[in-house]
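ingest -> fold -> write
write: protein_1
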Amino acid sequence: MDTKSCTFPSALDMNKLPIVRIKLNPPPLRCIAEAILPGLLENFENVSAEVVQCPDLTQPPFNLTSEGLCGDENVLDIGDITNLIPSIKREKLYNVKDLKQITGSDPLVIIGACGGPYPFFGADSECVKNVKMAGDCVENGTHIYMTKSDDNTECYHKSLPVDEMRFSLLANLFTSNGIKGEVLKIVCEVRKGPLNFSTCISEALAKHFGDEIIALGGVILMENGKVKVHIVKPSLPKIPMKSKIELDNWLHFIELSPPLVGVGCIVSHDPGLNLRLQHFHLYTDRNDGGHYHDDTEPKTIKYTGYFNVSKQFIKID
């Protein structure tokens, strides 16, 4: 779509939007590992959870902008589904540059799942946010995925330029200083229950910790087994959508083959802020990706996740 003649809203200043900060007192990673094992074992045949040194996430297959997940850790929930239903709020355009002031971190590394910057193509997309800001230097490893038309499910991929830092509608992001250190490694193979990997972890955390908020952010590697994702159609409707079911009609559901990597967040409990408890977007070195739903080959699936726990939860807008 030619966007030269289109008029788009300016990005909102997140520093001027409603912000709720919740200071967290997370348990040690080893305690989290022990707490989630029973829930994981109910849903997967083979499970392990342990504390390890983070692998270098700048290397394949992760290819992120920073080595690790440690230092001044935050999980952020920005916007929500009400920006999509019953009508799309095009004014909900944000810029991750604002998060440097909001978190007070430098360097600031941002990974996670969000809506792509609508003005960049004049169409909606799934966005894999991957940004590092250190001083005045910015490294942008962000990817977006969309389909070529409403009728064509072929995935279209674009790496965003360094100066395109915007996203639309909603986001679930993990921020840190990006340094290496200890992380929680979770491996699950052969799914026997109904829950996907991230939902299983969220529910296992909730069962053990109750109303205490445990917020994780990090990466998932899917080494075996195919996975179901969705990509939004380029022309989401202008008419009101009454439910998520109607929204689903404007999504393309496709199956992706391993290896796959996902970035996003997992939260155990919503204290009444209309939070999304788990949200991951996937990418590959084959230029396809999308919003993670579930695995489609449970007998062969293998997930390996590397996570850190947040010391602060931030809800914006």
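write: protein_2
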Amino acid sequence: MANQSSSNLVLCASFNQDASCFVIGTRDGIKIYDSNTGRLFFERAIGAFTIAEMLFTSSLLAIVGAGEQPSLSPRRLCLFNTMTGTALRELNFLTSILAVRMNKKRLVVVLQEKTYVYDINSLAILDTIDTVPNLKGLCAFSPNLDACFVALPASTTKGAVLLYNAMDLLSHCEIDAHRSPLAAMTLSSNGMYIATASEQGTIIRVHMVSEATKSYSFRRGTYPSIIFSLSFGPSAELPDILVATGSSGSVHAFSLGFAICQRSRRSSIILGSIMPDSFSDALDPAHHGVLHSAAPAGVKSYAVVRKVEKVTNSSTSEIIACRATISMVAYNGYFQEYSLTISSRDEYSWSLEREFNLQTVISENPISS
């Protein structure tokens, strides 16, 4: 796939919160696929869209257009029922919508200098957050109702993050994550961690939300790269896995928790206590696996960890590795799924499980309108 045409056929792509399906927006309309089978089960050919966000275990889809005509205005948010093929509600704004996030209780709409929080059932506006100019529409959102945080940039000159609790609408904390402005951020599904990358793209930091303290600092690479996406795996009994995609075309995977990582982290913490951040970051081991040329260089891509399973020793029942399923949509119109195995010694191995062109998938019985 890496040698295929690099033209961006996809304008936007996102997975729902449990990654059971994903949606893409093209110049022609919206398509939704089943992540497990790759089957196209919904399409709507009505024009170009720049935002498509789907609620998990639900037929609710939020879409934002990419044209000047009223039906495709970037200032208009349409909540759409994919089961019936009908529009439910519309919200109109004075400026372009840059990002949309949802869970079962809240709808978050990000504009350049304001972020709106709505009750998703009544669409009553609950709060308006004034923000620094957010040209990239950066926003991280944890779907967990018990730790439902919204993360927004707190500065245009450095990588500071402002965290709000979307349920009680109170400011939670501010985290100074990087010296350079932010390029990407994501919250773990349980709201425990926030991962960030700056415009440099060489260091990815993970902070614990409850204490606003740095837990991990990973060196992605030596040379700068634009980070397109960050995503945590589903939190369970196993250590969290964080994946990142960037302009180099590579996919990076980081493990947050095997024993060897913890030993190395303790060494880094000791050194970090007596040395500046820039030095301690450089000393932090990579602790990650790299899949090179997963997408053509410069082509935007979005990857998620769909599931994580433990691999045990048959005789001792000891966990000797974990196996993750990583799905990726590249904006040149390709879907790929990889199996990633991480051993207890922090050794990474990748295997491509499937790959297909999203533009050529034909559904057996698509819901369309």
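write: annotation protein_2
The CA atoms of residues 321 and 344 lie 5 Å apart.
Residues 1-6, 259-280 have pLDDT under 50 and may be disordered.
pipeline exit 0
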